[in-house]
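Is this the right way to post structure tokens for a design question? Let me know if I should format differently. Anyway, here goes:
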């Protein structure tokens, strides 16, 4: 108990082996960015899919080709604890690091994504929208999510029902983040330390709310990181459905520097 009180007094929140310690934004912003890729659905296109929706739908053959290219090119997947230690403490990363992230709890992430990742020893981050759990045929079950976690992947929060964080008022924080976090913790048996904004949307008012809930990092999409709190606005890119491997490789090298 004394140790816990000391940590609070120092402004340090401890999660297992990783501690959330104050770090100057300039330290984080001064680090070379790690490519963080975001996937949603992994399935073949349907005739009813709009042109816009196809950007979020990755044909399985393309996904498999992208993972093979990453492996053959010498990339190594990392997880958020490694990224946090790198950004805040300068911890070493493997050569050619990349992070694979998956939003929205779609079952094809487990059926196609995870099965393909295992071929290369890859691990990833699955940001779970809890309203979708146990709702087949399109979403993962709690058992599948638990299996992903037990296999060494990371589970992160993606709200209850994908409500835009910029619009939260009153009880929204409890409904969208607090309760889903507790539900995910009951599945993993451990803390949920990472969060992804629905639609990638955030505003400055949301950052202290996200931080005070104990998240070490929060992930947006491709906007610039907030200059005063970059850890709460870590950048990712959506890998577009239909990209060629050349476009895929170019995007990784162009968008993270």
């Amino acid at each position: 108990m004394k140790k816990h009180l000391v940590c609070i007094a120092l402004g340090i929140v401890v999660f297992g082996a990783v501690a959330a310690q104050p770090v100057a934004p300039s330290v984080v912003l001064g680090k070379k960015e790690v490519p963080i890729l975001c996937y949603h659905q992994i399935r073949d296109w349907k005739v009813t899919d709009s042109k816009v929706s196809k950007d979020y739908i990755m044909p399985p053959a393309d996904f498999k080709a992208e993972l093979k290219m990453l492996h053959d090119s010498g990339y190594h997947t990392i997880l958020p604890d490694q990224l946090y230690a790198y950004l805040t403490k300068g911890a070493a990363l493997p050569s050619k690091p990349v992070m694979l992230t998956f939003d929205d709890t779609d079952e094809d992430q487990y059926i196609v994504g995870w099965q393909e990742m295992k071929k290369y020893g890859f691990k990833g981050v699955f940001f779970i929208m809890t309203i979708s759990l146990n709702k087949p045929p399109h979403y993962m079950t709690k058992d599948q999510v638990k299996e992903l976690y037990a296999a060494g992947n990371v589970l992160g929060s993606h709200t209850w029902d994908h409500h835009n964080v910029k619009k939260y008022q009153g009880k929204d924080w409890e409904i969208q983040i607090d309760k889903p976090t507790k539900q995910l913790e009951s599945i993993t048996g451990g803390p949920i330390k990472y969060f992804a904004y629905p639609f990638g949307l955030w505003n400055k008012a949301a950052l202290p709310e996200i931080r005070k809930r104990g998240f070490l990092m929060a992930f947006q999409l491709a906007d610039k990181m907030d200059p005063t709190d970059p850890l709460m606005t870590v950048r990712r890119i959506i890998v577009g459905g239909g990209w060629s491997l050349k476009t895929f490789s170019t995007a990784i090298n162009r968008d993270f520097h």
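Format looks fine. Someone answered above. Worth noting: The mean pLDDT is 92. The longest strand covers residues 97-103.
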